[in-house]
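Hi R.,

Here's the chain you asked about this morning:
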Amino acid sequence: MSTAPEPIPLPVTAVTCLEDRAHVERTAELALEAGVQRLRLGPVSALAVDRTLHAELTAPHAATVLDVRIVRSMRPRGPRPCDDDSALRRRLKDLEAELEDLGRRRDRLLTRLDVVGRLAADLLREIGEGAGFGETEGPRWHRELDRVDAERASHDERLRAVDARSAALNAELAEIRRVMELAEEEPAELIGHIELTVEATAAGPAGLRLSHLTPCALWRPVYRAVLDGDSLTLETDATVWQRTGEDWSDVRLTLSTARSAAATGPPRLGEDRLTLQDRSSAERRTVDVELREEDVADLGPTPVLGLPGVDDGGEVRVLSAPAPVSVPADGRAHRVPLSAFTTTAGIEYACAPELSPLVTQVVRFDNLSGHALLAGPVDLVRHSGFSGRGALEFTAPGAPAELAYGSRDDHRVTRRTEETRDTSAITQRTLVTRTVRLHLSRFSTPGEDGDQTVVLRERIPVSEVSAVQTRVREDACSPAPDTVDADGIARWNLVLPPGGRRTVTLVYELSASAKVNGL
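And here is the predicted structure, written out as tokens:
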């Protein structure tokens, strides 16, 4: 073992932050001696995973790593305050410091009272000796005695105030210590050191590179979108949390979506037997149908509550911070800038009255960041300032993306539906007619000019069986939909002047044969 009094420092120089852990790289310069020697380096985080320790030496002469291991030990916490102290412990330290100051003030007051007492004794002796010699200085003696008495009374009052404050602080201090004995313990701090055994053919310098995995570290992507007219600036950041027990100071930070804990082997295949069975006569006579809901991407992004996991689209993504980063081990969120780009965005005012009576501003743009945009929350900023938080889905490089910038307060949509059902006595077909009326209003301020285009969407059921047919009655619609896609989404592009109103009527029919059940 090295006889150096202090271990060799082994700082963190590079970190690859994964979804739920971190790969830490450390470097150090060693002064090796010829032969086999054991070095002590650190301290390092006690959370380092032992089986992931890997050490490499770079030296102008031959040097080999024989063994590397981490040794953990308990070290009691020092008396100095730290950032992790509770409010109760900080109050305890403040009271102890104030009591120490009061003790010094009390000692000074007692010293001054002792001096005043000796002065009074000397004055009384002088008065007695002067009276014995026949001196008559009554006015001066009265003044001197009054001044001594006033000085003694002042110091006595200050001493009583100090004693009263000390008694109150001692009572509070005793109560705090009693509570801390019940609520808090003072555990020793667990630290780790690296024991490195190397063999060198000759003495000289050598570079050491040591890496290992450590838990209690993770990251998530976050974004900030600034909309200025039709120009959109998207800033990509990474929020990093770590409580590994040691700070990362000026490290090269790499962010990866690799999941080292995921199983690498393929899943086992089980048997899946398929059997054919003839339909019964009742099943041949009837067709059971049901209405089901499906999410369609054209209706806009689905809001994400909270911070989602890392969605990399099934492929490992690696992002790097452009500058050295410092992340303290306080367990708090720290934002790290990654990239930013500015592009021209397409703005659309869209509304789906079946979901919400609000008109939403939707911004569409292409991903020009040069890397994939992972799913995460987005801080939405307009020229007026922060306007809310949205969600961004996974977007490949160069692919289109969209953000919802909140609702417009000057637009409102109401929706009314009617349904009629009729069964033909001859064909026994059921005909369901549904009428949807949408009333769109724009409330404009005085002096506002310019038309506003609002994209209105309403869904129509789509049949997957031939026994049920859906048809839009364009002759009864007012106005007819501009487009109806394969998912049954009818779309209107409505132009509203300031203070304008529009009414949209959609009529469609569901026709089912007599053997259909469940419509």
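One quick note: Confidence is low (pLDDT under 50) at residues 298-307.

Cheers,
M.
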